[in-house]
Write a structure and sequence with these properties.
Oligomer: single chain
Radius of gyration: 23 Å
CATH topology of one domain: Structural Genomics Hypothetical 15.5 Kd Protein In mrcA-pckA Intergenic Region, Chain A
Largest sheet: 5 strands, antiparallel
CATH superfamily of one domain: RNA-binding S4 domain
CATH class of one domain: Alpha Beta
Strand content: 15-25%
């Protein structure tokens, strides 16, 4: 029988990638360098060692994911196995942010007017996008 020895610490970027918080290790490292990953409220570098029991907060797109490290892992495994190494503490409201489409402001340009001139484009850029009369 083979026994796997669990390391005392694992690099943060490796762990975030292995438990599928980020799709690639380089995305995890970039998020760490940008300050989007925090442990105990403090931004951490990609080489920071993760310990069992630490709570990690990561900004992934519009969602702020909060996970607790239950175990240490260096290699990416299937999602079912990865779930054994972390506890997801992210509130359900955060996941709703991903499903809600961003409301893009629409500018209505009247038909038949042709392409807007430079002056028209400047005017369109300064409009508030509430009920407006067409130009």
């Amino acid at each position: 029988m083979q026994q796997t020895v669990q390391p005392a610490q694992v690099r943060l970027d490796k762990w975030l990638w292995a438990v599928r918080v980020f799709k690639t290790r380089s995305l995890a490292a970039d998020a760490c360098r940008a300050g989007h990953v925090k442990i105990g409220g403090q931004p951490v570098k990609p080489a920071h060692g993760v310990k069992v029991g630490e709570i990690i907060t990561a900004q992934v797109g519009p969602i702020t994911r909060t996970v607790k490290a239950l175990g240490l892992i260096e290699q990416r495994v299937c999602a079912k196995t990865a779930a054994l190494y972390m506890e997801d503490l992210t509130p359900p409201e955060e996941y709703k942010k991903r499903r809600e489409p961003e409301a893009a402001p629409l500018v209505v340009w009247p038909k038949g007017q042709g392409r807007p001139t430079k002056k028209d484009r400047r005017l369109l850029g300064g409009l508030s996008f509430e009920q407006q009369e067409p130009l």
